[in-house]
């Protein structure tokens, strides 16, 4: 036998046994060949594991033929909703399947189990359809709409919306349902006696069940915020009949849209605003505001501008986005707005922002500045203006123009209210205000347009009614054409009203006649009850207020002073519109007539046969006299009081 060299023998000893198994002919010389491990999932012949829509922890059992000692199987998923694998125990793997709160009604994932040396095994994890399906039909920056259904039309359920952060703070579906039941019980007991138990309340909510009409519509939500739409089966006894079902939804964030907002054809009072957004299928607001209004009224806050514009839109259409095309200030795609009534020589901002179906802003505000042209002065007339007499709410104004033929207009403004405006801007704003009426002022015939030297009474000649005691005022005088265009520079004079002075004036309420007439606004021909009466003051140059109050209402006040304070408070700043001068207002109108009142000062209609006071007191920015009043009884209803329907004898 040949000798084997030492290095060759050493190499053979280090060769793996597997290699050694093929070297000999004799079975006793060959070692038993090694076997490949075989991985099998127990009790899973179909290769599918079904999990509940509410989520659960899953245990998967496996076995390995010819296992390698000390080795464990490992597992992984291709979807994030399968997670938290525990593979530390041989023969068993556990993992968590999350609740199905996403968009899918049903969903599946693949879990792959691997073992060293063995062929991997894939198992499908299928999550069942939710007991109550939730289909999200619309999401905006501030609203969510959804339709909820079940396969069983007899399955009753309740649903609502909750902010995800609020839900997460509760901790679990079980605790959330406990809170829901507690809230339902509180609603039942806080129903002002309508319900005496939770069962009665649930019977009210669920008795007229319509499986086709379960729709959620929530608005005024927070932008870019996660919410859960949730639902749960419940019967009229308060028994929960399904697991809690949730659907995660996030309100939209603001869009980034370039509106390419421009302004063209600026004139003294007109301009054309144009928008050409790079997103053609979003509605947007197209409007404007003066720079002064933006800085003073809106405090330079874009959100206040947006809220103001949306408020005006919602007054017409509410939150119904389908009506946005009917709004005059709303556009889609390339659009323009012809603007009239602007003030000359004034800075403005053109405005644009996107609007979604919830009638909420879906973009930031875009502003483009522009300025109108100044008025071209065509008349060099100058005015001398002075205030001759002034009291707490009235003044006489002397005007002397340098040209007797120049037509001019005068007005009075609280100095503090126009402190940031030039005299020219105040005058131009007054013209724009007068032109805003329907129909607009006819400047060729308006009695407030004068020529020559004049002494003008603030109320009788100028129609200025809101003048307050102890307040600084500025008088503005300027030329105006028959077309309503300012023709001269603006002259001014300043003054200050006095404090209210008590008056010795007495007031006689006389010739009271109760009556009734057919109410023109009553379809059934009901009666309107009224008092006709006169008021005679002892002084014809001071104002008085007059009205009607039910006797029982008057008696609730501590004294006449408290009553008059309430009258003034309810009338507000427009009280001077209901103040008079002279007998039956002879000091302010050319043809005075008796007063006729069909409602109390509070607005309540006069009732037949009730006892009332007809009252009057002096008013010059505050009550100046005692209260004068007379008793009066309203007319008594005659007959049936109007049309009496004849109902069918059998129904």
Can you characterise this structure?
This protein is α+β, with helices and mostly antiparallel strands and 651 residues long. It folds into five domains: 90 residues, Immunoglobulin-like (Sandwich); 118 residues, Immunoglobulins (Immunoglobulin-like); 110 residues, Immunoglobulin-like; 114 residues, Immunoglobulins (Immunoglobulin-like); 127 residues, no CATH class. Helices cover 15% and strands 34% of the residues. The chain has ten helices and 35 strands. The strands form ten sheets. It has a four-stranded antiparallel β-sheet, with no helix packed on it. A hairpin with a 6-residue loop joins β15 and β16. α4 packs across α5. The longest helix has 17 residues. It is elongated, with a radius of gyration of 43 Å. The termini are far apart. The N terminus and C terminus are likely disordered. Keywords: Signal.
Outline the fold blueprint.
Elements: H1 6-14, H2 17-21, E1 38-41, E2 48-51, E3 56-65, E4 74-77, E5 82-89, E6 92-97, E7 107-114, E8 121-127, E9 133-139, E10 144-149, E11 157-163, H3 164-170, H4 173-189, H5 198-206, E12 215-218, E13 226-233, E14 245-250, E15 262-264, E16 271-275, E17 283-290, H6 291-296, H7 302-317, E18 330-332, E19 335-339, E20 347-355, E21 366-371, E22 383-390, E23 395-401, E24 408-414, H8 423-435, E25 449-450, E26 454-457, E27 472-479, E28 491-496, E29 507-518, E30 527-537, E31 543-550, H9 551-554, H10 560-571, E32 579-581, E33 595-597, E34 611-618, E35 628-633
Parallel strand pairs: 2-8
Antiparallel strand pairs: 1-3, 3-6, 4-7, 5-6, 7-8, 9-10, 10-12, 11-13, 13-14, 15-16, 16-19, 17-18, 17-20, 20-21, 22-23, 23-26, 24-25, 24-27, 27-28, 29-30, 30-33, 31-32, 31-34, 34-35
Helix pairs in contact: 4-5
Keywords: Signal
Signal peptide: 1-21
